[in-house]
Amino acid sequence: MIDALKLRQDFPILHQLVNDEPLVYLDNAATTQKPEAVLAKVAAYYHQDNANVHRGVHTLAERATKSYEAAREKVRAFINAKETAEVLFTRGTTTGLNWVANSFGDQFVEAGDEIVISYMEHHSNIIPWQQLAQKKGAKLIYINITPEGYLDLADAKRKIGTKTKIVSIAQVSNVLGGINPIQELVTLAHENDAIMVVDGAQAVPHMKVDVQQLDADFYAFSGHKMCGPTGVGVLYGKRKWLEQMEPVEFGGEMIDFVNLYDSTWKELPWKFEAGTPNIAGGIGLGAAVDYLTEIGMDEIHAYEQSLVDYVMPKLKAIEGVTVYGPQDPKDHTGVIAFNIEGLHPHDVATALDMEGVAVRAGHHCAQPLLKYLNVPATARASFYFYNTKKDADRLIDAIHKTKEFFQHGSI
Ligand code: PMP
């Protein structure tokens, strides 16, 4: 089992007072904190190796290129992609999903085709498909959610059919925290000759993901949600698709030969990576992958479930608190969305911050989901492996104080 108290020592930022209280950071679904190992790796790159990658022959350029490409190999092994050619560095999940929509979508989607997503998607897994559907005259279709907050597989079976070209679903919802049945959706998509795209932003940081086992065609995630730097992410894609696809951006780094009126592209994965990449970010992500691997993804998943198991009954027991989404810890990662009757979630988040507890409030970039749930906004506490039961207690305690404050005017 994870020793969270020990691991917390690796995160300098966690050891501070916020509003005179020890910080309890529960906004990990928005972004996670970075361990010393990642911070040191990024600093060492800038201190010792900073140079542009791929083109230079001097020693620093070779060192930078080696570290950057080594990070790609670490990511490949982490998600068990077949080869590094299938691991594209991006700016994050949003970029990855846009690339699939703009490149694969532009090439393969035609008028009358159907793109299937769900009501629980993040805006970055909705808007690129809206844009594609509008451009191509394709139809965007939404899979329902069950009253318990699960993706409705029976509805998925009704909606994924012979007209479906693309199915794109989050493996884990950033609001409800539930784990979706991606394996079954991949099978459904493939039975209908559609491709399966997975938004893995909230899955890869929290559980073991094996893209070959899932057999997904594309899989996107962000470095900053898994202890890595901001501004770097990954798009995994099967070679058979990436080879057929056109790059989305053009410029330096991605070309082979440039003639006056046409050009040829480098081989995979560089064909998609135009311009100087986020070198420090990629190297930092490699360090984050090492760090998470050392802890163990199955251990992280089990530990988060134990935290949910601990906090969920306490949260639900508070009068006036509504928890959204699946409530069985075994289908859960550490994300819990909730509301307190009569209080706006922004007021809740502000009051919790006064107690040093950082949570998010709002629509969580999932407006269609909140509309579906018929709530304008929620508060959201999201746990990671460096959170403890004490953090959970502090959250519960701060919620009680918040209720008291708004009822009686003192905190
Ligand atoms: N999808 C999900 C499920 C997310 O939680 C997020 C980040 N909140 C994204 C996509 C977008 O990630 P990024 O902003 O890092 O591109």
CATH 2nd-level architecture of the largest domain? 3-Layer(aba) Sandwich
Mean pLDDT: 96
Shape: globular
Main pleated sheet: 7 strands, mixed
Total beta strand runs: 17
Overall tally of structural domains: 2
CA distance, first residue to last residue: 36 Å
CATH topology of the largest domain: Aspartate Aminotransferase, domain 2
Low-confidence stretches: none
> Which CATH C-level class of the largest domain is it?
Alpha Beta
Bound molecules: 4'-deoxy-4'-aminopyridoxal-5'-phosphate
Oligomer: single chain
Helix content: 40-55%
Proportion of strand residues: 15-25%
CATH superfamily of the largest domain: Type I PLP-dependent aspartate aminotransferase-like (Major domain)
Identify the strand order in the major beta sheet: 4-10-9-8-7-5-6
What is the helix tally? 14
Going by helix content, strand content and strand pairing, the class is alpha/beta
Q: Could you explain how this protein is built, in words?
A:
There is one protein chain. The protein has helices at residues 4-8, 36-49, 59-79, 93-108, 127-136, 153-159, 182-191, 211-214, 239-244, 279-295, 297-317, 345-354, 367-373, 389-408, and strands at 17-18, 21-22, 24-25, 87-90, 114-118, 139-143, 164-170, 195-199, 218-222, 233-237, 255-258, 263-265, 321-324, 335-340, 357-358, 360-362, 378-382. The protein has 2 domains: 4-26 and 296-408, Aspartate Aminotransferase, domain 1 (Alpha-Beta Complex), CATH 3.90.1150; 39-294, Type I PLP-dependent aspartate aminotransferase-like (Major domain) (Aspartate Aminotransferase, domain 2), CATH 3.40.640.10. The strands form 5 sheets. Strands 4-10-9-8-7-5-6 form a 7-stranded mixed sheet, with helices on both faces. It is built from 14 helices and 17 strands. Strand 5 (114-118), helix 5 and strand 6 (139-143) form a beta-alpha-beta unit. The longest helix has 21 residues, at 59-79. The chain is α/β, with parallel strands linked by helices. The chain is globular, with a radius of gyration of 22 Å. 4'-deoxy-4'-aminopyridoxal-5'-phosphate is lined by residues 29, 92-94, 122, 124-125, 170, 174, 199, 201-202, 222, 365. Its cofactor is pyridoxal 5'-phosphate. This is cysteine desulfurase.
